[in-house]
What does this fold into?
Amino acid sequence: MEDDVTVSVAELGRRARVAAADLAVRTRANKDAALLAMAEALEANAGSIVTANADDVARARSAGTSEAIIDRLRLDEARVGAMADGLRQVAGLPDPVGEVVRGYTLPNGLQVSQRRVPFGVVGIIYEARPNVTADAAGLALKSGNAVLLRGSSSAAASNAAIVDVLARAVADAGLPVDAVQLVRGGGHDAVKQLMRARGLVDVLIPRGGAGLIRSVVEESTVPVIETGVGNCHVYVDADADLARALEIVLNAKVQRPSVCNAAETLLVHADVADAFLPGALAALREHGVTVHGDERVQGYRDDVVPATDDDWAQEYLSLDLAVAVVDSLDDAVSHIRRWGSGHTEAIVTDSLAASRRFTATTDSAAVMVNASTRFTDGEQLGFGAEIGISTQKLHARGPMGLPELTTTTYVVTGDGHVRS
It folds into this structure.
């Protein structure tokens, strides 16, 4: 079985490399036309995609899958429409390929230009969320990359339906059909072979839970851009506008709790705890949130669950929130640096000094000042669809849009120059 999978993944990779060479020289107009065709095809085939997705959702429920994961898995016509809109947004974005990062002329007359170029073949390994299939395909194509998509078995029918639609649209637009391919079947063997396809796949991007990401990072021989889990914090400072703080906390926690940029921990300065926490805890309870609090937080309500170390480290992805009282901004930062995942942190404060210290000392991919953690998102930050949110520090960090799907090459132009 593994030999069959190896041949299959290797063949997909070889076809993808041929497609990538074609895409690398295509104009923005070519790529944008394909993206718009992909968007129209998604909308035209929304019914069949939703039907395929219903099979995945039914299987997930039968398997006892949590509601948080089912929410990520579920598609309806509105979500398919949002996928199409995401492709149109990408079509409207500048093409990063060919952008000059820096250029200069040396004293000897050599002209040096560092330019953005596609990676070539990008592999995406992801869990549950079938909308990633369209987002990844669109971003890869616009940045001149061929893409190999490997979704989880839980979304197999959805992903197959989406890729079939997208690949046909790409081909109809005159681009290589192998620009968008799905790695189908094969179980974990297929995933392992994709992770070991060095020389065929240029970079892998995992999207999913901590277990998936750790497995890809540790087992892959292909370079990996690590996207991390989201243990995001909101810190309410001593100088916070408390009405604003409550609005931000509620939005960060309850607007969509099953995503990586939802808040999982609330830290409140001791100077405003008495004024803020009674009302905030009551409002959280009204929204169905279970609070896991330290000893001081437990003193405000009887229904607060005692927090453990597991709670401080937890990405709940549910209506649960860890809450602690801290004695200073530095204590809040120390808590975040110990327990956080490096994704997104927010401070609510009217103090410029406090906001500057918080942004300078929290070591995270995104830091919000008087804004919800929910804004760490490619579309919200003006990138269009995103490929993921990187929590590493090499090459890309934070929401990854089109430029993060390119590397660079140096073009050096001379006039018969030789080195002495």
